């Protein structure tokens, strides 16, 4: 199988706070013969600026898109916020000729141009559409047995659906299907598509923790052994904020978050240390007991 190649966009949060996402994703992609290129000139996706200075946000994203275009590569993101920012900017610039010309004037100072001829995709989409279920299953040498997983998509993956085109926004199946390739069961749970609470952290911590706690309780009641995520912000909310919740509110929640490439990597026989398993704050060491 010829290696597929993408420009890997890590964003800001993963290198700073969730390095295990980068580590585990690279390990899995290498096994599946998906090649990634690091473009060192990449900058922030612009997400923090979206509601403060729209043109600044678009310029941030456009520069990244232009850098990938220059190398003839599509962009693969790990972060759902970055996925949303880059994909929306790509859409807006294609639709708005005047804005595209203005942004290209700025990009021209670095001899860059946005043409809009490359796509933005997410790690999960690459696995589902480019690699395919059968290829993934072929590489799962230790499938999970009796493991119940509650998938959490993250808000930005599904909305706005006409731009994101990630999955059915009301009844998504892509993530659940990928979980099933590991042998694990992807359970139905009522709050599956609700926000994790991350956007409110630092603004209204109590409300942020309320949203997180509701999801933890609901996932546990539905029978989940673990939450599975594919966004660094959602992972931080269910990992570090779950610990903060237990400390501040004297609760005893224990529904650990595992990143999808960590889950898949274990099933593929990749060592936990290479997947950054111990970098997760909520211990997930017991998951090995579910491996065949």
- Give the number of helices: 14
Q: What is the CATH architecture assignment of the largest domain?
A: 3-Layer(aba) Sandwich
Low-confidence stretches: none
The average pLDDT value, as a whole number, equals 96
Strand order of the largest sheet: 2-1-3-4
From the spread of the alpha carbons, the general shape counts as globular
Structural class determined from secondary elements: alpha/beta
Oligomeric status of the shown chains?
single chain
Fold-level CATH name of the largest domain: Rossmann fold
**Element string (H = helix, E = strand):** EHHEHEHHEHHEHHHEHEHEHH
Helix content: 40-55%
Measured between the Cα atoms of the first and last residue, the distance is: 27 Å
Description:
By secondary structure, the protein is α/β, with parallel strands linked by helices. The chain has two domains: 119 residues, Up-down Bundle (Glutathione S-transferase Yfyf (Class Pi), Chain A, domain 2); 153 residues, Rossmann fold, CATH 3.40.50. It has 14 helices and eight strands. A four-stranded parallel sheet has the order 2-1-3-4, with helices on both faces. α12 links the parallel β7 and β8. α2 packs across α13 and α3 packs across α4. The relative contact order is 0.14. The mean pLDDT is 96.
Quick structural gist:
The chain is an alpha/beta fold. The protein has helices at 13-17, 19-31, 54-70, 80-95, 97-107, 123-131, 133-139, 155-158, 161-164, 174-180, 205-221, 232-249, 260-267, 272-275, and strands spanning 4-9, 34-37, 75-77, 120-122, 148-152, 185-186, 226-229, 257-259.
């Amino acid at each position: 199988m010829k290696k597929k190649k993408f420009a890997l966009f890590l964003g800001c949060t993963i290198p700073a706070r969730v390095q295990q996402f980068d580590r585990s994703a690279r390990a899995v992609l290498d096994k599946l013969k998906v090649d990634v290129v690091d473009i060192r000139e990449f900058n922030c996706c612009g997400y923090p600026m979206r509601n403060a200075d729209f043109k600044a946000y678009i310029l941030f994203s456009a520069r990244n898109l232009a850098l990938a275009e220059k190398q003839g590569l599509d962009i693969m993101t790990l972060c759902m916020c970055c996925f949303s920012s880059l994909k929306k900017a790509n859409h807006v610039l294609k639709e708005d000729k005047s804005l595209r010309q203005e942004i290209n004037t700025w990009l021209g100072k670095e001899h860059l141009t946005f043409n809009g001829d490359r796509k933005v995709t997410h790690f999960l989409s690459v696995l589902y559409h480019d690699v395919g279920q059968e290829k993934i299953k072929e590489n799962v040498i230790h499938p999970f047995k009796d493991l119940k997983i509650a998938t959490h998509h993250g808000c930005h993956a599904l909305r706005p659906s006409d731009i994101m085109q990630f999955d059915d926004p009301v009844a998504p199946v892509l993530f659940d299907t990928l979980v099933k390739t590991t042998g694990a069961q992807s359970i139905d749970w009522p709050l599956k598509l609700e926000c994790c609470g991350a956007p409110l952290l630092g603004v209204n911590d109590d409300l942020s923790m309320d949203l997180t706690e509701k999801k933890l309780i609901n996932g546990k009641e539905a029978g989940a052994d673990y939450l599975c995520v594919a966004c660094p912000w959602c992972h931080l909310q269910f990992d570090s904020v779950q610990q903060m919740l237990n400390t501040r509110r004297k609760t005893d929640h224990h529904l650990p978050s595992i990143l999808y490439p960590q889950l898949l990597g274990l099933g593929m026989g990749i060592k936990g240390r290479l997947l950054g398993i111990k970098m997760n704050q909520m211990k997930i060491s017991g998951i090995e007991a579910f491996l065949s």
